[in-house]
Amino acid sequence: MKKIILTLFSFAMITLSYGQCTPDTIYQDSVWGIWPNTTENFAPGDIGVPYQQIINFKVPTDAGDLDSNYAGISLTNVALLSVNGIPDGLSFACDVTNCTWLAGAQGCASITGTPTTNGTYPLDLEIVGCVFGGVICDTTFFSDYIIQIGPVGIETYSLQTKTFELTQNYPNPTNQMTNIDFVLGTSSSIDFVITNLIGDIVRFETINADRGVNSISIDTQKYPDGVYLYSICDGVSKQTKRLIVNH
After folding, report:
1. This model's pTM is above 0.85
2. From CA 211, how far away is CA 159, in angstroms rounded?
């Protein structure tokens, strides 16, 4: 943990943004925390589609909740100094000036913008906590957050009205669960079909699919070993790929 003198801390704070979000009152009786947590994680996004993720905070009153070295010492305030690793096209802003909240307060930050580049983006929330009236400040990193822009398995695509893209299942070959993603430019009804190589239908379902990334999980434990074909069709376009089952 790096100690920061108040004057340096204050200088850094002037670069932070003030934006519009409202803290969710569902967390007002919590002792402290950050929501969503890393299990729920941040919402995925798509290129060219406006994105928003609200982060709610409840600031602790005991500095030991952020750093055990300060257990029993009253926290003065905290600040969200940075969201490290944020995707291109996105930025963050807070409900208060300089993203700084007093001990025990509720707050929120909003990650917004329009993503420009696909990928999986690990994020760190860089939070500074101050004690002794702000004389000493330490930095804590809350890691393991992720924003996924675009589907896993499709490296480059731009979500247009006519986008109709089927990905390769993963893992492949498979012997248990496998996942299939597809991307649509508009919400529509999709026929999803799996057949064996002689054309026998192994699975058929009609899916009311959303614009953007859609995911299907397939349990292949009861499928005989072999090669299968899976496809999506909206009545106009159709795409097909191969799935290999190997127990």
Report:
1. no
2. 9
